[in-house]
Structure formats: structure tokens, C-alpha cells
Amino acid sequence: MSKKTKGAISGIFLVLAIILVIVIIVVFVVLKISATKKTNTTPSASSTAQPTNVPVQGTSYDATVGDVKFSFQSATDLGNTLTNSDPRFPQTLTTTDKFIKVIVGAQDQGKFNIMQGAWDVGDIVDSNGRHFVSINDKAYSFLPTQNACGNLLKPDFQPTSCVKLYEVSKESTNLTVEVNAIPPNTSKKKEAFIGLIVN
Fold first, then answer.
1. Cα 62 to Cα 34, 167, 172, distances in angstroms
2. pLDDT at 85
3. Whether residues 35 and 84 fall in one domain
4. Domain span holding position 92
5. Which of 77, 129, 174, 180 has its CB 3.0 to 4.6 Å from that of 191, i.e. a possible disulfide?
6. Is residue 56 situated within a structural domain?
7. What pLDDT shows up at residue 145?
8. Contacts of 158 by beta carbon, 8 Å cutoff, 6+ apart
9. Domain shared by 188 and 93, yes or no
10. Mean pLDDT throughout 28-39?
């Protein structure tokens, strides 16, 4: 075998070795990118869907804001249609998702009356931070006639029940509801959140 032939064979082997190294590098990079994408799309344990009747972990079913103690009483999934038997008002109210009726108790634990309008129940908030406002203004005919939201509270009387209706996404989980009050000797409203168990 001549020197020229040996040189040609060596050159071919060199070229094949370089091509093999390049192929190995490309395969490695493709596998690495694929693994990274898979990791990013796999849902974490905290983001997997949980039942709607489980409140956010660590959230209590009661909270005290100023002298007002708020406590969870009930939360009911009413489906996607509200019906009303009173002929003076619309007979039905519908949604593409669901209505939830929430009842929260409020009790004055201070020494003086808590004036009307100094406390209330606010938005429902889900695990994704989405806020759902009360629809009491448009659904007042579907509420009890004696709804005591924001009423005067007297010291150490039995809790006063506040009923709120909400329109909430079917996808929402781990619901909490905002409660707020104006503490004594201040004009600034403070808020807290209590967990909901929806039945």
C-alpha cells in the first residue's frame, strides 16, 4: 500500500471521527433541550387540580379583624341556574360556570357597638389569585329577605349571618373569601381571608 493510499485512508478516518463527534454533540444537545421542555411542562404537585371543597392550605375558617370575629358558616354550590318563585322578580338567573352561596358569621368581641357599614364580606379568591365579586346587587331577589351584611353588631351577641352570592369559574379550586372591618379608633379598613368548604 502506497503512502498516498495510507494518507487517504487516514484522512477518511479523521473525517469520519469528526462527523461522529459532531453527531454525538447534536444528539446530546437535542436530548438536553427535550428534557428541559418536559420538566417545564410537567405540573408540580402544588399546581395539580384539587377538589373545590378544599381551602387553601394553612387558611383558617375564622379570622378576627379589629373587634369583629368572622367565622365560616357554609358555602353551597348552586349550579349554573338560580330560580326564584317571587313573580315580582326575574324567575331565573343563569351562568356558564357556577353560582356559590356563602354565609359568614360576624360577631362583635369588643366593648362597644360596631356601627352599620363598618364590616363586610368581600371577594372570593381562588388558588390562582382570581377574584370573584359578589353578585348580590343583581341577584338580590335570590337572597333571604333578612340579609344582615354590614348590620350593626352589639358586643358579645350571637354572630350575625351575612349571605353573599358569587359567580365563580368551574376551574377554580381552594377558595377563600375576604372579610373586612374598620377597627376601633381608625378609619382605615383592614381585611383577612377565611377558607371555604363548598358543598
1. 47, 23, 21
2. 75
3. no
4. 62-195
5. 180
6. no
7. 78
8. 107
9. yes
10. 72
